[in-house]
Design goal:
five-stranded parallel beta sheet; alpha/beta; four-stranded antiparallel beta sheet; binds zinc ion; 13 helices; 14 strands; 412 residues
Length: 412
């Protein structure tokens, strides 16, 4: 698939700080330790609706990971998928009497536009599920042959499922107890009660053809892939095993990331799938999680249409920590707009305070599990000084502007 346009990232003077991130599997903040190339996989959208602020918050969090690694001189191999075939897409197309392919293309195009507007650096590989079907079926065949997957005992629909005990490590990524896993599996698209499965937690790998549904011919018979194996294979085939960060929203901790890891580890016999599992919090509106099922979505494209500066959206979302569940409010956006105005006014001055210490603080905060609330306060302090007429360094405003651009992705 076509990725989206990039923006140049300025070099920042001074000393970069190695990035530390909270790892869900370890339950603590640990250093990321990429080699010359850092591997990043972030789960992409299922393109049946426009990008809402919950999505935006997730992709912005991982954009900061990307940027801190670039600052540290790593080449970043960023891979993202598009789940351009799955039940929600087919259901929405059916509801709206739309063609599922056209719906997917339209929403993917809008997502790219939103990402460009938000200045999210693009993935190097932007990969659709449909275009990956040959590599996915090859992996599922391998799992079957290795005894890690099985066909359900159903003559009409012999779908293929993953044996969740295949690696002996199921649960290590989420750290959830069995009852939580069962609860979330049922809540988040799993089918614990499907007759013929060996265990309720076994996840779908290949759904055999059903009348009226799209399907693809393969060595497994005609059908379509499950969601977890899609990400597992797309990541593994481009980043290898033990890549640096597997990311997504916190609603992907289980069953999605647990299964993606288990599938890949069963395929390769190697552990871990990713060195860090990193999850962004949920964005709420009016006291509830922003989600399609609740119908309380604020779309990035709608804000753009209302002439909201996407840089103010960035600042509003960065005012909270990426891991915390937080509310989107008009007041939060107004504060983002106000802050952006002050930063821009300060960055346009001919002289200002020397930015060296502020840039060092910015790096300290961001390298500490992306502490954006503190990072924003550090820039506020510089802007306040500059706007008060203190400081006569002619390079202060330009140095600060470059650092805010490179490290926070904000164009002043
Ligand atoms: Zn995924």
């Amino acid at each position: 698939m076509q990725t989206w346009a990039s923006t140049p990232v300025p070099r920042v003077a001074g000393t970069p700080r190695p990035l530390r991130l909270y790892d869900t599997a370890a339950g603590e903040v640990r250093p990321t330790a990429p080699g010359s190339t850092a591997g990043l996989y972030v789960c992409g959208i299922t393109p049946y609706d426009a990008t809402h602020l919950g999505h935006a918050a997730t992709y912005l969090a991982f954009d900061l990971v990307h940027r801190q690694w670039l600052d540290n001189g790593h080449d970043v191999n960023y891979v993202q998928n598009v789940t351009d075939i799955d039940d929600p897409l087919l259901e929405r197309a059916e509801r709206d009497q739309d063609d599922w392919v056209v719906l997917g293309m339209r929403e993917t195009a809008l997502f790219r536009e939103d990402m460009v507007a938000l200045r999210v650096l693009p993935p190097r590989s932007y990969i659709g599920a449909v275009e990956s079907i040959p590599e996915i079926t090859e992996a599922i065949a391998k799992l079957l042959a290795g005894g890690h997957a099985y066909r359900v005992d159903d003559a009409e629909h012999p779908d293929i499922y993953f044996d969740h005990t295949a690696t002996g490590r199921f649960g290590y990524e989420s750290q959830y107890p069995a009852e939580t896993m069962l609860e979330l599996f049922a809540e988040r698209g799993g089918d614990p009660d499907r007759p013929g499965k060996r265990h309720p937690l076994d996840a779908l790998l290949w759904r055999v053809e059903r009348p009226g549904e799209p399907s693809w011919e393969s060595e497994l018979g005609a059908g379509r892939p499950g969601w977890h194996v899609e990400c597992s294979v797309i990541a593994l085939n481009r980043l290898g095993t033990a890549f640096d960060v597997q990311g997504g929203g916190s609603d992907l901790v289980f069953p999605h990331h647990e299964n993606s890891a288990a599938h890949a580890e069963a395929l390769t016999g190697e552990h871990p799938f990713a060195r860090h599992y990193v999850h962004a919090g949920m964005i709420g509106l009016d006291g509830e999680k922003m989600s399609k099922s609740k119908g309380n979505l604020v779309f990035v494209s709608r804000l753009r249409a209302d002439q909201v500066d996407p840089m103010a959206v960035r600042l509003a979302l960065f005012a909270g920590h990426y891991r915390s569940d937080r509310a989107w409010t008009r007041q939060l956006l107004d504060e983002g707009i106000h802050r952006l105005g002050r930063w821009r006014d300060a960055a346009l001055l001919d002289t200002g305070p020397t930015a060296t210490d502020t840039i060092a603080r910015l790096r300290d905060h961001l390298s500490n599990d992306l502490d954006t609330p503190s990072a924003l306060l550090a820039v506020d302090a510089w802007a306040n000084e500059a706007l008060a007429g203190r400081g006569s360094d002619p390079t202060g405003p330009t140095d600060l502007r470059d650092a805010v651009d490179a490290l926070l992705g904000i164009d002043l």
